[in-house]
């Protein structure tokens, strides 16, 4: 069965060809670009049965290539509670509670992109999270992905207690007076203790992470990525 061709006109088309940087039309045959050039020639090549797409005067560009991407991590993060816009502890608590309520069967409550400056003394504590979710582990990645904020249930799941040593290159933040873990895991305490555990998911869940990321890349015009 022949694939219907599509012809795009009515926009300013950047070709990335230094000798002919601009064109008036593109012909797409299936999944391949069959022609880039003048509108009249494009219409003739596409044929009378081609689908005509009007770019409406917009800019059309080749797809972007991102050479450094963590595809699975990106997809997983997109499915977590997004905390970057939170401006207070109360905002974070509300967003975490909302995600927990929306995902009652999830074994853990997950969030990402919180910012230290919205917290008292820039210090996340397990008590802040325990106040909204105490029956399930909570894991919140910082916006820079170099630390993780957890609640008491998560500390228990990780087996972290007052006697747990800091991993090489990392820190389990502790109360300076009691030595009790505060719920903030930095650098390798995050990468070695939390990340591997959360990565242990069924294949279909991991496939869902990848699909979520790839769909987002496509919406942003990113057509090729390199997994790091």
- Main sheet overview: 6 strands, mixed
| CATH architectural name of the largest domain | Roll
Shape: elongated
Uncertain spans, ≥5 residues at pLDDT below 50? none
Radius of gyration: 25 Å
Strand content: 25-35%
Number of individual domains: 2
Q: How does this structure look, described?
A:
The structure is a single chain. The protein is an alpha/beta fold and 228 residues long. It folds into two domains: 5-62, Urease, subunit C, domain 1; 71-204, Diaminopimelate Epimerase, Chain A, domain 1. The chain is built from eight helices and 15 strands. It has helices spanning 39-46, 71-78, 89-102, 126-130, 152-158, 188-191, 195-199, 203-219, and strands spanning 5-9, 12-14, 22-23, 25-29, 32-37, 51-54, 59-60, 64-69, 81-82, 109-114, 138-142, 147-150, 170-174, 181-187, 222-227. Strands 9-10-11-12-14-13 form a six-stranded mixed β-sheet. The protein has a four-stranded mixed β-sheet with strand order 5-4-1-6, covered by helices on one side. A three-stranded mixed β-sheet has the order 3-2-7, with no helix packed on it. A hairpin with a 6-residue loop joins β13 and β14.
Short description:
This protein is α/β, with parallel strands linked by helices and 228 residues long. The protein has helices at residues 39-46, 71-78, 89-102, 126-130, 152-158, 188-191, 195-199, 203-219, and strands at 5-9, 12-14, 22-23, 25-29, 32-37, 51-54, 59-60, 64-69, 81-82, 109-114, 138-142, 147-150, 170-174, 181-187, 222-227.
């Amino acid at each position: 069965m022949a694939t219907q061709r599509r012809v795009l006109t009515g926009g300013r088309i950047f070709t990335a060809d230094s000798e002919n940087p601009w064109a008036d039309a593109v012909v797409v045959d299936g999944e391949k670009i069959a022609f880039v050039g003048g509108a009249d020639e494009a219409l003739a090549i596409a044929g009378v049965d081609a689908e005509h797409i009007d770019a409406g005067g917009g800019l059309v560009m080749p797809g972007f290539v991102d050479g450094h991407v963590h595809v699975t991590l990106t997809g997983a993060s997109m499915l977590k509670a997004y905390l970057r816009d939170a401006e207070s502890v109360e905002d974070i608590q509300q967003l975490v509670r909302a995600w927990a309520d929306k995902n009652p069967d999830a074994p853990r409550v997950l969030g990402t992109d919180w910012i230290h400056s919205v917290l008292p003394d820039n210090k996340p504590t397990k008590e802040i999270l325990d106040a909204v979710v105490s029956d399930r582990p909570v894991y919140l990645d910082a916006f820079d992905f170099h630390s993780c904020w957890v609640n008491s249930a998560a500390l228990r799941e990780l087996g972290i207690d007052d006697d747990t040593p800091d991993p090489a290159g990392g820190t389990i933040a502790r109360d300076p007076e009691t030595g009790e873990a505060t719920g903030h895991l930095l650098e390798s305490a995050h990468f070695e203790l939390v990340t591997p555990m959360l990565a242990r998911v069924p294949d279909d869940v991991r496939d869902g992470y990848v699909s979520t990321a790839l769909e987002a890349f496509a919406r942003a015009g990113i057509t090729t990525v390199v997994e790091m």
